[in-house]
């Protein structure tokens, strides 16, 4: 069983695959923390301690308000450099915000911490945890070379940073578990083209609702370069933002 994410901060050298900078998505994540009353942890920016267990009390324009710690030493540490780190979990995925202008304020007879809203955040999706189902309205195809100058085309039904699923049968390419598919190309809508090598991990015969018999093929990526990871994460973010905007 997948263990839930911890509320410890994560420091990575390459934030590209996890970066969220779209304001609509940042607002959605913060709104989820507020409306669900999620427990969060607050840290001095760039540090793992001290920390305060807290909740988000309110969102007002570009200002956030949090419960402060009962320990004045911890509160002083959190606001010392006016930069604070928020770590929480939204829909089973760890999110991490850096918050500027952190300061102590009085709120309803007690101490609270106020900060400005984040410009960007990190959504720490595990490669084996989060997989995006691609909507039927956003058709994405995978072009697989056949080795003789030709190529075959299969539909991509879901994708993550660890792999993808394909749907379809090619008369020129037999899918066998363990086989390697090299130099595949996928046009991720207007985000860009990824070029990947991948291994077939599972092949399942399926029957679609219209009665057509086909195959679902699960593949894992080989040594996915950072640039390709970034493009996939941007694609996932784009589809998720579209979904959020319709809710």
UniProtKB/TrEMBL annotation:
Q: Does the keyword Nucleotide-binding apply?
A: yes
Q: Where located?
A: Bacterial flagellum basal body
Residue limits of the Type III secretion system flagellar brake protein YcgR PilZN domain? 18-118
| UniProt key word Nucleotide-binding | yes
Q: Which domain of life is it from?
A: Bacteria
One Pfam match, given by its short name, reads PilZN
Q: Which UniProt keywords apply?
A: Bacterial flagellum, c-di-GMP, Cell projection, Cilium, Flagellum, Nucleotide-binding
User: Which stretches make up the PilZ domain?
Assistant: 125-237
Stated family:
Belongs to the YcgR family.
**Summary of the function given for this chain in its UniProt record:** Acts as a flagellar brake, regulating swimming and swarming in a bis-(3'-5') cyclic diguanylic acid (c-di-GMP)-dependent manner. Binds 1 c-di-GMP dimer per subunit. Increasing levels of c-di-GMP lead to decreased motility.
**Assembly description:** Monomer. Interacts with the flagellar basal bodies.
Q: What is this protein called?
A: Flagellar brake protein YcgR
Species name: Iodobacter arcticus
């Amino acid at each position: 069983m997948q263990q839930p994410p911890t509320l410890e901060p994560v420091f990575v050298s390459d934030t590209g695959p996890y970066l969220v900078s779209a304001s609509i998505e940042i607002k959605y994540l913060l709104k989820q923390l507020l409306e669900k009353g999620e427990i969060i942890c607050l840290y001095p920016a760039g540090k793992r301690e001290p920390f305060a267990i807290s909740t988000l009390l309110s969102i007002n324009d570009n200002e956030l308000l949090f419960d402060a710690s009962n320990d004045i030493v911890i509160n002083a540490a959190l606001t010392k450099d006016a930069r604070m780190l928020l770590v929480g979990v939204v829909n089973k995925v760890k999110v991490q915000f850096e918050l500027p202008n952190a300061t102590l304020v009085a709120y309803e007879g007690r101490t609270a911490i106020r900060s400005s809203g984040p410009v960007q955040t990190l959504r720490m999706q595990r490669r084996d945890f989060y997989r995006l189902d691609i909507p039927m309205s956003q058709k994405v195809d995978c072009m697989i070379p056949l080795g003789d100058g030709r190529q075959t085309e299969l539909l991509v039904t879901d994708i993550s940073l660890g792999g993808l699923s394909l749907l379809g049968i090619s008369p020129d390419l037999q899918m066998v578990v363990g086989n390697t598919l090299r130099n595949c190309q996928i046009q991720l809508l207007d985000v860009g083209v990824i070029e990947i090598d991948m291994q077939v991990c599972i092949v399942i015969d399926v029957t679609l609702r219209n009665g057509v018999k086909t195959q679902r093929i699960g593949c894992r990526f080989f040594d996915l370069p950072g640039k390709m990871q970034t493009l996939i994460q941007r694609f996932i973010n784009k589809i998720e933002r579209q979904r959020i905007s319709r809710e």
